[in-house]
Amino acid sequence: MPDSFDYIRPASLSQALKHLSSDINDAIVVSGGTDVLIQLRYKSISPGKVIYVKDLEELNKIEENPDFVRIGGAVTFSRIMRNEIIKRNFR
Ligand SMILES: Cc1cc2nc3c(=O)[nH]c(=O)nc-3n(C[C@H](O)[C@H](O)[C@H](O)COP(=O)(O)OP(=O)(O)OC[C@H]3O[C@@H](n4cnc5c(N)ncnc54)[C@H](O)[C@@H]3O)c2cc1C
């Protein structure tokens, strides 16, 4: 792991984006951590800020629109497979 970094759990997507945009070259987004934690451990990345986004409500939605379905960046495959909007539109 790097010697130190700030671990940030923003309360909203707009807060996450503020953190990210204020330090775009020194921040990384983390969701499950499968890839990012390995990269941190082996020091292939050394960000100053790690921004955790998995809990963000805005990224956990599956929304039906007239012409498209929007799937948030933190929605898991298992939730997609069980979701009624997905079943109705894609099965
Ligand atoms: C041992 C091992 C086995 C694996 N097996 C499989 C497999 O069978 N099938 C498969 O498909 N994949 C597999 N993977 C790959 C892994 O599951 C994917 O890379 C996936 O991205 C990990 O999700 P995570 O949320 O844990 O990622 P993280 O480590 O949190 O993030 C991965 C990348 O996505 C970025 N990111 C995370 N969330 C967001 C967001 N909301 N918006 C924008 N960027 C974001 C991060 O900054 C990072 O660059 C495997 C990986 C490992 C280490």
Can you characterise this structure?
The chain is α/β, with parallel strands linked by helices and 91 residues long. It has two domains: 1-56, Uridine Diphospho-n-acetylenolpyruvylglucosamine Reductase, domain 2 (2-Layer Sandwich), CATH 3.30.43; 61-91, no CATH class. Helices cover 32% and strands 19% of the residues. The protein has a three-stranded parallel β-sheet, with helices on one face. A two-stranded antiparallel sheet has the order 4-5. The longest helix has 10 residues, at 13-22. It binds flavin-adenine dinucleotide.
Topology (SSEs and partners):
Blueprint: E1 6-8, H1 13-22, E2 27-30, H2 36-41, E3 49-52, E4 62-64, E5 69-71, H3 77-82, H4 84-90
Parallel strand pairs: 1-3, 2-3
Antiparallel strand pairs: 4-5
The chain binds flavin-adenine dinucleotide.
CATH top level label of the largest domain? Alpha Beta
Bound molecules: flavin-adenine dinucleotide
User: What can be said about the biggest beta sheet?
Assistant: 3 strands, parallel
Looking at the overall shape, the CATH architecture of the largest domain is 2-Layer Sandwich
CATH superfamily (homologous) name of the largest domain: Uridine Diphospho-n-acetylenolpyruvylglucosamine Reductase, domain 2
Strand order of the largest sheet: 1-3-2
Number of domains: 2
Say what the CATH topology of the largest domain is: Uridine Diphospho-n-acetylenolpyruvylglucosamine Reductase, domain 2
Describe the global form. Answer: elongated
Low-confidence parts, pLDDT < 50 over ≥5 residues?
A: none
β-strand percent reads 15-25%
Give the C-alpha Rg. 16 Å
Helix count? 4
